Amino acid sequence: MARITASVFTSHVPAIGAALDLGKDKEPYWQPLFKGYEYSKQWMKDNTPDVIFLVYNDHATAFSLEMIPTFAIGCADSFQPADEGYGARPVPVVKGHPELASHIAQSVIQQDFDLTIVNKMDVDHGLTVPLSLMCGQPQAWPCPVIPFAVNVVQYPVPSGRRCYNLGKAIRNAIESYDEPLNVHIWGTGGMSHQLQGPRAGLINAEWDNKFLDRLIAEPDALANVPHIEYVREAGSEGIELVMWLIARGAMSDSFDGPAPKVKHRFFHVPASNTAVGHLILENQ
Ligand code: DHB
Ligand code: FE
Description:
284 residues; two-stranded antiparallel sheet; 20% strand; Protocatechuate 4,5-dioxygenase, Chain B; eight-stranded mixed β-sheet; binds fe (iii) ion; alpha/beta
């Protein structure tokens, strides 16, 4: 059977992708940020999974106000890096895993979560920046990736509780796939940031760090936090953090297993307008 061995959590700021693509990552502004991912890149090399199930949000790139799926699973063979208005990022094509993705769609929909099935989709910085942070600048990404897009852009967006429970359903799905695949699940986006309005530039490092503490130690209680708290404390785009609960719900301790081991924790402000948070958790 397939197994979820680890979860990875990271912010996805587009300027991080631009810094890498334009060779600015050694500049003083960016150095401390990329230093926080050195451990992670080595860890990815030492623990390369067979598949990454990557929870992220599309930023009105593949979808628009014309069509807004709450949860969309990418079942295609491959996904092109999107042109977000300044040309596509010069990063590898994302290879999918249609067999596992279709199995997850079947299983999760039968567990009463209504997923949208996507057979053609370009992927924006929400997906490619986390891959760049964790893998650097390879010729090809190290393994297939199943993109899982969550609407956190246009209200109504899903609650933390629904995301956490969905993570459990995704775990059931993956662990009932009849092939011994090593799967990582990633939760991306956040941390505190607000990109518009009078509070633009808001960062709340104290709340972010408490979120990291609680994500590690008490995810079930953290799933009760309502939208309004994310928006009030972490800014309008801080709501992206609900996606981290999907990945966290798929870990063993959500099923009475042992608590995961914290392999790495990193926090840095600012990157562009955003607080950057990062965790690597391994199932025991
Ligand atoms: C920024 C952060 C985001 O999460 C995003 O999607 C776009 C911009 C920023 O900090 O600039
Ligand atoms: Fe974003």
